[in-house]
Design brief:
The chain is α+β, with helices and mostly antiparallel strands. It contains 10 helices and 25 strands. Helix 1 packs parallel to helix 2 (79-88).
C-alpha cells in the first residue's frame, strides 16, 4: 500500500484496481475510496424526534477504454469482487467521453477540529437552543436538527495521482414558526462548516434563533402590507448578504456549470441561459464580479482537490459584469480544449462526480451600510428570504422577503410584510449599482443529478443596492 494512504481502509483495494486495469490495456483508470462516519439528532417541540449514526466504506472505479467511460462502485472491498467488476465492463457499451490531460498530483491534507466532531455533546446544544425559543410565547413551532461527522477519502489514478483528505464537518438546521392571531411567519436558519464545533458555537446558534424569531414578530405586529401598484413603483432595493448569496448561487452559479451549458443536465436539473454560442456575454453591471472558491478556509464547501484529483482554485465566473469562465470537470475541459478547474464533486463513493459549486460569492465593494441606505433614498431593504423560485433556464427568479423594511428619505422605516423581488436574471444583475464592503455567507446543501446528490456549499456577497430604472413588473 502507498505510504500516503496508509490510514485509509480500502486503499490497498483501490491500488489493486488500478494495476488490474492497466494490465487489461485500459487507457485511463481512477479509484476513489471513502471512509466516513457521523451522527445526527432531531428535536421537535423540545422532544427528541430521532437520532442516527452511520459509518460507511466504499470504492468507486472509473475506467476509460476506446474513449468510453465506465463507472461502478461497491461496498464489498474484496479483490475478487473488484476483479470481476473490471473484467465485466467489457460487456458494456459505455459512454463517449474524453478527459482533459492533467498533471499527476500527490498530496495529503487534513482540516483540524479543535472541538472534536467525535465527542462534543451536540444534542445538549440543540436542547439549549430549543429552551431559549420555547420560553417565548409567540414561538408556535420549533424544529431543530444537527449533525457532525468525518469523511476520509483516497483518490488514485493510472496517471500517478494519490490524494488523501480528512475533512470533519458540522451542521445544523432550525425551523422556527412565530404567530400572532391567525398570522404566522416561518424562518429556516442554517449553520455549517468544515471543521469542529469551535465553528458552530452554541451562543451563536442561540443568539441567531432568538433574534430571527423576535424580528419575525416585529414584522407580524408592525409590518405594513403594500398594494400591487405601490410594489411596482419601488425601484431601489437594498439586499442583504443572504439575498445576494442565494441569487448568486441560483442565477449565476448553476448557469455556469458546463454540463448545464452543454445540455447534459437538461432532463434532470434544467439548462442555462448561457450556451456555447453566447459565452462572454454581459450579464450584469460593471459593479459585479462573481467568484467560486473551494479553498476558503473552514467553509462549508471547502476542498483542496476535487473528486477527479484536480487541484482546487478560485474560479472567476463574472468579471465586472462580463461572463468569463465556466465550472469544469475533466470531461468538459476536454470539450473546451482546456484544463479542468477542479469542480468535480460527488456526495458519496456510490455516485459519479458531477460539476458542482463550492463557495460562490459576489465580490464586495467599499460602501458602508449607511451609505447604501442613504443612496437608495426611497425603497426597500430586504434582510432575508422566506422562499425563492427560479425557472429551469435560470432566466427568471423570485425572492420572497421574510424580514424587510421600507426605506424613506435615506433611512430605515417600518417593516414590510409582502415584499418580493421578481425579475429576469439579466435585469437583476444590471440593476446592481453599489456594493457594500461587508461580505456575509450562508450555507446550504445543493441538489443535483440523478440519483440526487446533495453537497455542502456556501453562498454569499455584500449588502448591495439594486436600482431598477424602470421599476419592477
Amino acid at each position: 500500500m502507498s505510504v500516503i494512504a496508509n490510514s485509509i481502509s480500502g486503499a490497498d483495494e483501490a491500488e489493486y484496481a488500478i494495476k488490474l486495469a492497466e494490465k487489461q490495456g485500459i487507457e485511463y483508470a481512477e479509484a476513489y475510496v471513502e471512509n466516513s462516519y457521523g451522527s445526527s439528532y432531531a428535536l421537535e417541540q423540545g422532544v427528541l424526534n430521532g437520532s442516527a449514526a452511520y459509518a460507511k466504506t466504499g470504492l468507486r472505479i472509473r475506467l476509460v477504454k476506446d474513449s468510453k467511460l465506465y463507472t461502478f462502485s461497491t461496498n464489498v472491498l474484496e479483490k475478487g469482487n473488484i476483479r470481476k467488476a473490471i473484467e465485466r465492463f467489457r460487456g458494456f457499451r459505455g459512454v463517449d467521453t474524453r478527459f482533459s490531460p492533467e498533471e499527476p498530483l500527490k498530496a495529503r491534507y487534513k482540516v483540524a477540529d479543535k472541538i472534536s466532531v467525535d465527542d462534543h455533546d451536540l444534542l445538549a446544544d440543540l436542547v439549549q437552543v430549543d429552551k431559549a425559543l420555547s420560553g417565548r410565547k409567540y414561538v408556535k413551532f420549533r424544529s431543530l436538527y444537527g449533525g457532525a461527522g468525518r469523511s476520509m477519502t483516497y483518490f488514485t489514478n493510472s496517471q500517478g495521482s494519490e490524494i488523501v483528505a480528512d475533512l470533519p464537518a458540522v451542521s445544523s438546521v432550525m425551523s422556527v414558526i412565530v404567530g400572532s392571531g391567525t398570522e404566522t411567519r416561518q424562518r429556516v436558519i442554517q449553520f455549517g462548516a468544515t471543521g469542529g464545533f469551535e465553528l458552530m458555537k452554541l451562543e451563536d446558534m442561540e443568539r441567531q434563533a432568538v433574534a430571527d424569531a423576535e424580528n419575525m414578530m416585529k414584522v407580524l405586529e408592525k409590518g405594513v402590507t403594500l398594494g400591487h401598484e405601490e410594489l411596482k413603483k419601488i425601484k431601489n432595493v437594498v439586499m442583504a448578504p443572504e439575498i445576494a448569496g442565494i441569487a448568486v448561487h441560483e442565477s449565476v452559479g448553476h448557469p455556469h456549470e458546463a454540463d448545464r451549458v452543454y445540455g447534459r443536465e437538461a432532463a434532470q436539473a434544467g439548462t442555462s441561459y448561457l450556451n456555447p454560442g453566447n459565452l462572454g456575454m454581459e450579464i450584469g453591471s460593471k459593479e459585479i464580479t462573481l467568484i467560486d472558491d473551494p479553498t476558503l478556509k473552514n467553509s462549508y464547501g471547502f476542498y483542496l482537490y476535487d473528486d477527479e484529483g484536480v487541484k482546487a482554485k478560485p474560479k472567476l465566473l463574472v468579471d465586472r459584469g462580463v461572463q468569463k469562465g465556466l465550472l469544469l470537470n475533466r470531461e468538459y475541459a476536454s470539450v473546451l480544449g482546456t484544463a479542468s478547474n477542479g469542480s468535480a464533486r460527488s456526495d458519496s463513493y456510490s455516485n459519479e462526480p458531477l460539476i458542482r459549486m463550492s463557495n460562490t460569492y459576489l465580490k464586495p465593494g467599499k460602501a458602508t451600510f449607511e451609505e447604501l441606505i442613504s443612496e437608495a433614498k426611497d425603497g426597500v431593504y430586504i434582510k432575508n428570504f422566506m422562499e425563492w423560485n427560479i425557472d429551469d433556464t435560470r432566466s427568471f427568479e423570485r425572492y420572497q422577503g421574510n424580514e424587510a423594511y421600507l426605506i424613506k428619505n435615506g433611512s430605515l422605516d417600518k417593516p414590510v410584510k409582502n415584499f418580493v423581488i421578481e425579475s429576469n436574471t439579466i435585469d437583476f444583475w444590471h440593476a446592481a449599482k453599489l456594493m457594500g464592503k461587508d461580505l456575509g455567507f450562508s450555507i446550504g446543501n445543493c441538489g443535483k443529478g440523478e440519483p440526487m446528490q446533495g453537497v455542502p456549499v456556501t453562498m454569499g456577497g455584500p449588502t448591495t443596492l439594486l436600482s431598477f430604472g424602470k421599476g419592477r413588473s
